UniProtKB/TrEMBL annotation:
The keyword Nucleus does not apply. It comes from Halobacteriovorax vibrionivorans. This is Tetratricopeptide repeat protein. InterPro entries: TPR-like_helical_dom_sf, TPR_rpt. Keywords: Coiled coil. It holds the Pfam family TPR_19. PROSITE patterns: PROKAR_LIPOPROTEIN (PS51257). The keyword Coiled coil applies.
Length: 259
């Protein structure tokens, strides 16, 4: 009985030792797992701490950047405002300058107009002075022809009449005086005087070259007085006496109209 009890005791102790040994192995495995998990957790915590630190740094950087942005924006707005003020001042200066230029242009235009008027007046006076000086050098005959050529018939007429009455000038020059007196009379609508001068020239100098044109205007003078038949007869005489004259086309045209 004592042996059995001792054996049982030994067996129990052995089993207990074996059981104790088994729990210890599980604990070891568990502890290993716990340690591993602890290490992993610590690593995770470190990583999390690092991430938090980095996030904080990033937040600080963002805050600093936002501050810089606000400062830049405020500074930019201030610069924009300053630039706009400068632009406004420049626009005001430009407007003022434009007004001054406009006023100056008006003054220049007015002065230019005045200068042109003065120059025109000086030229006119100089021309008159030269004309008077030239007239003093010209003979009465040349002066009369000069005035007639310029279309100044009223001024030429008294000189021509004086020369005609004096009778000192002879030949073709007198024929020219006679012809021009007839033309002046026709232009001034003194048709009776025109008929007298042109008729006198043809009667006294039938072969004078001035008669070619003189007869055409003699016919025109009769036409103006309503004496159509006399005008036709004179034109026919002109074409017969001066068939090669440059005044033939005008005579033929007038004759065709009268017939």
């Amino acid at each position: 009985m004592k042996k059995t009890s001792l054996l049982s005791t030994i067996t129990l102790i052995t089993l207990m030792g074996s059981m104790t040994s088994c729990k210890t192995q599980e604990q070891i495995e568990r502890e290993k797992k716990i340690n591993t998990m602890s290490v992993q957790m610590q690593q995770s915590q470190r990583l999390n701490a690092d991430a938090i630190s980095k996030m904080q740094e990033l937040e600080s950087s963002i805050a600093a950047f936002q501050g810089q942005m606000e400062e830049y924006t405020n500074g930019k707005d201030q610069k924009v405002e300053e630039l706009q003020n400068k632009i406004n001042k420049l626009e005001e200066q430009n407007t003022s300058l434009t007004d001054e230029v406009t006023k100056l242009s008006a003054k220049i235009e007015e002065q230019d107009k005045y200068i042109k008027e003065v120059i025109a007046l000086l030229k006119k006076k100089d021309k008159q002075r030269r004309a008077k000086a030239a007239a003093k050098k010209r003979s009465p005959y040349n002066e009369a022809m000069y005035l007639y050529g310029k279309g100044k018939y009223s001024q030429a007429r008294p000189i021509l009449e004086e020369l005609y009455k004096a009778g000192k000038i002879k030949g073709k020059s007198r024929d020219r005086i006679n012809h021009n007196l007839g033309m002046v009379a026709y232009i001034q609508k003194r048709y009776d005087d025109a008929i007298t001068y042109f008729s006198s020239l043809y009667t006294k100098k039938p072969k004078s070259p001035y008669n070619a044109n003189g007869l055409v205007y003699l016919a025109r003078s009769f036409e103006k007085k309503g004496q159509k038949d006399q005008a036709i007869a004179i034109l026919q005489e002109m074409l017969k006496s001066f068939p090669k004259s440059r005044h033939v086309p005008a005579a033929k045209k007038l004759l065709a109209r009268l017939k």
